[in-house]
């Protein structure tokens, strides 16, 4: 039964993680430039992500009962939940960059280019950077790829700690469901 629930749980919990990610991307866009709020949202974002991943993994580890729940089981679950959340966040990010807030993302790109110009970067390099930035900033493949990679790496990093705390040793004195 446990193995049959892996993908339904990954999709359910990944959708929740992706929804929270979308919420914080939206809040970041709406409150862009307000550094105190942005910092608060960043800290809250990480805290909620870690809490959700911990609760979901802990809930899954309880299903394993006497069979135990290994560190690897936890890492695999966290990784796939994070990847699915990244796909959903990337889908929203495509819509936000190309239709909802394109001016905001162009402003962010211009701010980066201005900082590079002030750092005395040669004009030829600035032109190259601007061209590649415009290609990648609004490219659906790049946006989804970077969101999936980013959330996957975040899941792996925090998953190292969460999987260690949620693992369960095999209880040799209790009958397992698989027998």
What does this structure look like?
This protein is mainly alpha-helical and 179 residues long. It has six helices and no strands. Helix 1 crosses helix 3. It is elongated, with a radius of gyration of 20 Å. The two termini are 12 Å apart.
Short account of what is shown:
The chain is mostly helical and 179 residues long. It has helices spanning 6-30, 35-63, 71-100, 102-118, 123-137, 140-166. Helices cover 80% and strands 0% of the residues.
Key features?
80% helix; elongated; mainly alpha; 179 residues; single chain; 0% strand
Secondary structure elements and their pairing?
Layout: H1 6-30, H2 35-63, H3 71-100, H4 102-118, H5 123-137, H6 140-166
Helix pairs in contact: 1-2, 1-3, 2-3, 2-6, 3-4, 3-6, 4-5
Oligomer class: single chain
The percent of residues in helical segments reads over 70%
Q: Structural class of the helices, strands and pairings?
A: mainly alpha
Strand content: under 5%
What is the molecular shape? Answer: elongated
Poorly predicted segments: none
Output mean pLDDT: 90
Total E-strand runs? 0
Distance between the termini: 12 Å
Count every helix, treating DSSP H or I runs of 4 or more residues as helices: 6
User: What value does the Rg take, in angstroms?
Assistant: 20 Å
- Sheet having the most strands: none
Summarize the helix and strand pattern as letters: HHHHHH
């Amino acid at each position: 039964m446990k193995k049959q629930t892996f993908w339904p749980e990954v999709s359910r919990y990944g959708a929740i993680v992706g929804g929270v990610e979308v919420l914080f991307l939206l809040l970041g866009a709406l409150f862009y430039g307000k550094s105190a709020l942005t910092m608060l949202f960043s800290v809250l974002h990480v805290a909620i992500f870690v809490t959700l991943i911990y609760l979901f993994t802990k809930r899954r580890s309880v299903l394993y009962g006497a069979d135990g729940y290994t560190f690897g089981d936890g890492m695999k679950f966290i990784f796939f939940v994070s990847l699915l959340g990244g796909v959903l966040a990337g889908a929203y990010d495509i819509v936000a960059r190309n239709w909802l807030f394109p001016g905001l993302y162009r402003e962010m790109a211009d701010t980066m280019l201005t900082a590079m110009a002030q750092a005395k970067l040669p004009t030829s390099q600035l032109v190259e950077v601007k061209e590649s930035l415009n290609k990648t900033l609004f490219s659906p493949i790049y946006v989804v790829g970077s969101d999936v990679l980013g959330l996957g790496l975040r899941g792996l990093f925090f998953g190292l700690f969460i999987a260690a705390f949620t693992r369960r040793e095999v209880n040799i004195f209790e009958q397992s469901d698989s027998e």
